[in-house]
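Bench notes, bay 3.
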Amino acid sequence: MNTPLVTPTPTKQRGITHGTSSSTLADVLERILDKGLVIAGDIKVKIADVELLTIQIRLLICSVDKAREMGIDWWTTSPYLNPKLAPATVQTEEINARIARLEAMQQAPVPLAREAVPVAVETPVR
């Protein structure tokens, strides 16, 4: 029987973790929409220390629920995006009536122009 003379003592080894798990595009988009993504930047155009133009860019990408949670809901008060807040229908009705009149005029037969017949007018002599 062969017995080892020295028994190995267990040592703590650090496990090396590798990033072998991959995320799909759907996973990345879900995380961005859930947490939110902010991109901010400034563009400044200067000539001889004189600032000619400044553009400040702020981009927020998130879900509608996350935006509402942060207090951003400008699309609910925009008349262009919310049909309930659309401009008054009086103006729209006037435009529709005018279009109907113009279309009716276009479809109506146009009378032919009569040839102009010269008419002799006598003036009394005094």
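Next record in the batch:
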Amino acid sequence: MTESPAPKHTAAWKSFTIASFIVAAGMMAGGIWSLEASFAAKGFYAMASLMLVHTAISVTKTLRDEEEASRFLNRLEEARTEKLLMGAERRTD
């Protein structure tokens, strides 16, 4: 049974992604703040951007969890197959 190692992220990549998120959130907040619109329109855009971030995180987590579950199920199936083959091998000896 071959197990592929989980990909590891470097500290530089983690720092880059966090910094990118902070810059993007700041740019969005600054754009909404300087927007020449009513307070209600600004609130709508702010809530929409927060909801967009939330759903992006939720979709990413859901897809990652699904991938991890399928990896686990594949390993479980491989282990069952190996056990079955080992039992069949013992019976023929």
